[in-house]
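Please decode residue identities from the backbone states below.
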């Protein structure tokens, strides 16, 4: 019996996360081969190809989409290309693994969802937020079973000082690349939705304290529109209130670090990643009944998974299993909140998610 041919992957945009996670992750899976890479320049593409043993360097994404020998595309570009490249890849009959932040705004996210629905046999997956991979199943179970009683408040804190000083302009500071995405808001909303269900409405206020940074490519100062300090009051569809505090200009954050606290009528759950929000596998949980002393809480047996994004993608392709982390539909949910928050602080009003 002849062996099945390998799953052949083309990469568009081999940025930091693609090099650190996706390329090693794909290389570790039997029967998977990354056969082409397309970067912003041929030179940078060649460096990636040499580092990871990729046979071909493309200079135009169309070379990836038009290649009948490529089965799947990993899109690692900045958000401004996610929608276009996803739609083109799906139309070309290729499975898609797209980097998070899903899109520039909710309209683009809807376009991506629509394209995926036209091609139901193709896998369309977003790279999930990684920092609750050990604990989200446990937290969701506790909430569904009513272990906290009635969920009343969700407090989300993500503070750091990475925006202080003379740091150069980053693509996340540039609206032409990031759209309505502000800091890690979409990532935080993704995990809150994963645990507690969708958002119903938001009221937001924001400030951009650092309004200019030097673009390292041009050497010129560029104006920044995206906030570096953001507060959101949200109503969840299930009735709870959620409070988000985000800042990249808050030096020496509190010792508890970045965390999410869930306050119910009968118990409280605190979840924390310490000071490194994006760390994988270091989260900690405590649980307290009433106003008692919080005690350490371990993830349910067999649920504390680590980074398996690429393996999950390939598994869905091979088995037809639905995408769990993260589906395009779930991405659209967090992108609607991202846009609602932008509208709220810029228009100074409450925004219902039904509007977005």
């Amino acid at each position: 019996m002849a062996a099945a041919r390998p799953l052949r992957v083309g990469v568009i945009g081999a940025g930091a996360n693609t090099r650190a996670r996706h390329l090693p992750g794909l290389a570790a899976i039997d029967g998977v081969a990354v056969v082409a890479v397309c970067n912003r320049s041929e030179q940078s593409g060649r460096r990636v190809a040499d580092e990871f043993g990729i046979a071909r360097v493309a200079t135009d994404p169309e070379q990836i989409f038009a290649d009948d020998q490529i089965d799947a595309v990993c899109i690692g570009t900045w958000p401004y290309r996610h929608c276009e490249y996803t739609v083109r890849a799906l139309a070309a009959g290729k499975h898609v693994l797209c980097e998070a932040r899903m899109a520039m705004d909710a309209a683009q996210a809807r376009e991506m969802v629509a394209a995926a629905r036209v091609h139901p046999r193709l896998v369309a997956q977003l790279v999930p937020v990684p920092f609750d991979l050990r604990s989200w199943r446990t937290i969701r179970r506790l909430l569904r079973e009513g272990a906290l009683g009635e969920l009343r408040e969700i407090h989300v804190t993500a503070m750091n000082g990475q925006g202080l000083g003379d740091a150069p302009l980053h693509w996340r500071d540039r609206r032409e690349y990031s759209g309505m995405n502000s800091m890690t808001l979409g990532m935080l909303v993704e995990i809150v939705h994963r645990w507690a269900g969708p958002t119903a409405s938001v009221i937001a206020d924001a400030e951009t304290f650092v309004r200019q940074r030097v673009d390292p490519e041009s050497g010129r100062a560029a104006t920044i529109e995206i906030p570096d300090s953001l507060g959101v009051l949200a109503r969840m569809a299930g009735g709870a209130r959620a409070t988000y505090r985000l800042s990249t200009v808050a030096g020496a954050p509190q010792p508890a670090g970045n965390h999410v606290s869930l306050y119910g009528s009968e118990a409280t759950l605190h979840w924390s990643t310490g000071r490194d929000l994006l760390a994988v596998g270091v989260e900690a949980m405590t649980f307290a009944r009433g106003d008692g002393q919080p005690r350490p809480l371990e993830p349910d047996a067999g649920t504390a998974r680590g980074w398996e994004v690429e393996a999950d993608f390939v598994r869905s392709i091979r088995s037809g299993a639905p995408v769990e982390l993260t589906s395009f539909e779930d991405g659209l949910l967090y992108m609607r909140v991202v846009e609602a928050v932008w509208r709220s602080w810029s228009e100074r009003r409450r925004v219902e998610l039904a509007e977005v």
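Observation: The first helix runs from residue 16 to 27.
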